[in-house]
Design a protein that fits this description.
The chain has about 230 residues and is of the alpha/beta class. Helix content is about 35%, strand content about 25%. The chain has seven helices and ten strands. Helix 5 runs parallel beside helix 6. The chain starts with a strand and ends with a strand.
């Protein structure tokens, strides 16, 4: 079976202020994951977990190295093509839910479909949104606004939004970081179940070991390298 996602020698550095030496964040990351797998990347704050997920999600480009998604070299794509990859093939969940306060839960979930070029997917999206919201326990909250939800409910809505366009890859950056223990445990369990039910490849960056240990693979990011 061909690997779903491959990183070869991925490095990232940033130029420091006042023309000082470049600061290295990632240094030669090699990584492979198969379709439908789940993987956790753990490490302390500032270790580069978010940077790595941003590169995989095409929100940032590596300084050097190669990222292959389903055999496609992402470095060969222009910004318009990368935007299409993000919209159709990758779903995102962040520590902050980023829900629009003026929109209902259902409207928030459907936002990514507004720029989707697949007409059939757009037409089926409302039904899929309702089904997934029911699945995560938000059926009675479809027409509530984010301010009327608990922290755990807002994050579950964000999970559904990340899945609405039927992505092949779901990236979660510290998804339980802003939740209390009970809500964090519930969300972790939900991510594992949706990984299986939606046949989506899942990558989670977290410092929460209890969440990381529920993934099928676990990597530690240390000194810019994965162990």
């Amino acid at each position: 079976m061909a690997s779903f996602l491959v990183l070869r020698g991925v490095a990232k550095s940033y130029q420091s202020v006042l023309d000082g030496p470049a600061v290295s964040v990632l240094d030669g990351i090699d990584f492979e994951i198969q379709p439908g797998e789940s993987a956790a990347i753990i490490g302390p704050s500032g270790s580069g977990k978010s940077t790595l997920l941003n590169i995989i999600g095409t929100l940032d480009r590596p300084t050097r190295g190669q990222v292959l998604l389903e055999g496609q070299d992402l470095a060969q794509l222009d910004e318009s093509q990368l935007a299409t990859v993000r919209n159709r093939r990758i779903g995102f969940i962040f520590q902050s839910h980023h829900l629009l306060p003026q929109c209902t839960v259902l409207e928030n979930v459907l936002v990514p479909t507004l720029v989707c070029e697949d007409k059939q997917l757009r037409q089926s999206a409302p039904e899929r949104a309702r089904r997934l919201l029911e699945r995560v326990g938000l059926g009675p909250r479809l027409h509530h606004r984010p301010g009327q939800l608990s922290g755990g409910e807002r994050q579950r809505a964000a999970v559904v939004r990340g899945l609405i366009n039927q992505p092949r890859l779901l990236l979660a950056d510290e998804p339980t970081g802003a939740l209390d223990r009970a809500a964090a445990e519930e969300l972790a369990r939900l991510l594992v179940e949706l990984n299986r039910e939606e046949h989506v490849t899942l990558m989670v960056a977290t410092h929460a070991l209890d969440l990381a240990e529920q993934m099928s693979r676990l990597f530690r990011l240390r000194d810019g390298r994965l162990a």
